[in-house]
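Researcher: Checking consistency across runs. Here is Lipoprotein again:
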Amino acid sequence: MVIPTTGREPDSMRGKRTATGAALAAGAFAVAGLALAPAAAAVTPDTATITADCGTFGSGAATLTATQDGTAATVTVTSSITAPIALGEDSITSTLTLVNAAGGTTAFTGTKNPALAMGDAVTVGPLNGTVASGDSLEAFGGSLQIVVLGITVTCTATGPQSPGPFVFD
């Protein structure tokens, strides 16, 4: 038996098509919203340099590299101070204390370092810390304390970091 058609679809099909169209439109708006969402938080500058004095262990240039993900931040310190002996991976306990322009200090801590051969430049980090939006952190006035084989070495910046303090979003 053949059912004659009137060229109209049943009401149930129209409802499904409307629901499908609404879902596609909502999905398109969601994708557009993601494309327009703000970028992840960032610190500027992401790299700064200082001259550090580590007392009897030497002095020289150091590079600080910062990253930020929300309130979590890291700083890695690469110095021109060299390791007097070979050191194993993750064998240095470090605390980097930066001075906040609004007052107080922020500490970045960790036990991360690559394996170092005697004479290699000492690198520590990433060291973990917590920041707030708008924090302006500077190495000058703070310190880097490292503990290696029970020996504590404290390094301080001899002047402001260049190009300027780390400012966190």
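Researcher: Does this match what you'd expect to see?
Model: One thing to look at in this run: Residues 11-36 form the longest helix (26 residues).
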